[in-house]
């Protein structure tokens, strides 16, 4: 029985651990913190596609049906009668994934801060942890986030682009059915958001490349009379296709930058990559070849993000004005998908060729 070491006890690491433990591998998941789910570094909005991968009832706290997009002078509202995205309790969700991994037979070891690995003559890997802890395995999987030490130790890190995200959980009055998205100069590298947990609580934040705290404070000041419950934040990797495997060392999730550049979301894409990775190990197939379809979608999100980041407030105003056309709204409601842009981008361009001007 081969021994697998997974660095990182988040949802992606635990999910691939569960799949491999069920397949009969000796799986050990190493988590640097003393508990699962903290600190929270995610906005916690996940597309409805999540339910096609795992049951969601135990950690979903709200379901949104639409979104309102704001530019400097325009507004675009997209509302349906059906649920479009889940708002999750990330701490509960992470713990659920950890429990599933343990039920499948994986071991989770806490307070293990991975440092590096070395290859032994027999092909096995010797892992070095803080406080002189060591472990020997046959296969190493890095699910250890955007600044992955596994990626660095394997010489797979390379050049990476990050955004810094900050959000506050607040008490106030909110529309529980709608997410709000703010585009343009208020957050030029990405966007700002209001994600409702309920009618009285929400997560308000943004992500940028620089001066994040200053921009966040300015954005938060737009919403007076709020009670701050807590602040959260973290790095968001921007997808760039790179090698994610070197012999018996693999990267998955944020460690592999498998994150949508359009939304910054990486849960669904990471879980799909985890499935591909587990299958490639079990069947002794190429992991990178199994990622081709997912990488194609992620490439399109990167292309869209580059275009959006070049847009001025004037362009965003024009974009939202076009988006308000009935045929565009209808196409978005019918084909829109947060995770798979190929399902709707070209259909919408066909419906409204004037959108092509945003590409040039």
Q: Summarize this, please?
A:
The chain is globular. The protein is α/β, with parallel strands linked by helices.
Please supply descriptive tags for the structure shown above:
single chain, 360 residues, alpha/beta, FAD/NAD(P)-binding domain, 6-stranded mixed beta sheet, 30% helix, globular
- Overall shape: globular
Question: Distance N terminus to C terminus?
Answer: 54 Å
How many helices does DSSP assign?
10
Helicity range:
25-40%
Largest sheet: 7 strands, mixed
What is the assigned CATH homologous superfamily of the largest domain? FAD/NAD(P)-binding domain
Written account of the structure:
There is one protein chain. The chain is of the alpha/beta class and 360 residues long. The chain has 2 domains: 3-300, FAD/NAD(P)-binding domain (3-Layer(bba) Sandwich); 311-359, no CATH class. It is 30% helix and 28% strand. It contains 10 helices and 19 strands. The chain has helices at 11-22, 90-103, 149-153, 212-220, 267-283, 287-290, 292-309, 313-323, 326-335, 345-351, and strands at residues 3-7, 26-30, 45-47, 60-64, 66-70, 75-79, 85-88, 107-109, 114-119, 125-129, 133-137, 139-142, 161-171, 178-182, 192-196, 201-208, 227-238, 245-246, 249-251. The chain has a 7-stranded mixed sheet, with helices on both faces. Strands 8-2-1-12-19-18 form a 6-stranded mixed sheet. It has a 3-stranded antiparallel sheet with strand order 3-7-4. Helix 1 runs parallel beside helix 2 (90-103) and helix 1 (11-22) packs parallel to helix 5. The N and C termini lie far apart (54 Å). The mean pLDDT is 91.
């Amino acid at each position: 029985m081969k021994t697998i070491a997974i660095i990182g006890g988040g949802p992606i690491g635990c999910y691939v651990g569960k799949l491999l433990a069920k397949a009969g591998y000796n799986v050990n998941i190493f988590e640097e913190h003393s508990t699962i789910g903290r600190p929270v570094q995610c906005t916690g909005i996940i597309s409805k596609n999540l339910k096609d991968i795992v049951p969601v009832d135990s950690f979903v706290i709200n379901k949104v049906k639409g979104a309102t997009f704001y530019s400097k002078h325009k507004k675009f509202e997209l509302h349906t009668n059906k649920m479009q995205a889940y708002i999750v309790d990330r701490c509960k969700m992470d713990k659920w994934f950890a429990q599933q991994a343990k039920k499948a037979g994986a071991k989770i070891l806490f307070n293990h801060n991975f440092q590096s690995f070395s290859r032994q003559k027999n092909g096995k890997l010797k892992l070095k942890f803080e406080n002189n802890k060591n472990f020997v395995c046959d296969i190493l999987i890095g699910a250890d986030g955007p600044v992955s030490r596994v990626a660095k130790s394997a010489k797979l890190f390379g050049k990476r682009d990050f955004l810094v995200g900050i959000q506050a959980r607040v008490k106030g009055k909110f529309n529980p059915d709608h997410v709000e998205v703010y585009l343009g100069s208020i957050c030029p590298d990405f966007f700002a958001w209001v994600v409702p947990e309920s009618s009285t609580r929400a997560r308000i934040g943004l992500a940028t490349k620089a001066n994040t705290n200053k921009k966040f404070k300015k954005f938060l000041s737009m919403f007076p009379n709020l009670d701050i419950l807590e602040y959260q934040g973290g790095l968001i990797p921007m997808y760039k296709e790179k090698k994610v495997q070197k012999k018996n060392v693999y990267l998955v999730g944020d460690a592999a930058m498998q994150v949508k550049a359009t939304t910054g979301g990486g849960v669904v894409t990471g879980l799909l990559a985890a499935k591909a990775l587990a299958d490639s190990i079990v069947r002794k197939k190429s992991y990178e070849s199994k990622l081709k379809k997912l990488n194609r979608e992620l490439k399109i999100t990167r292309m869209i993000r580059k275009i959006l980041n070049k847009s001025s407030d004037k362009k965003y105003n024009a974009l939202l004005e076009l988006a308000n056309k009935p045929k565009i709204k209808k196409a978005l409601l019918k084909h829109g998908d947060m995770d798979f842009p190929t399902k709707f981008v070209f259909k919408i361009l066909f419906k409204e060729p004037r959108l092509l001007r945003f590409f040039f």
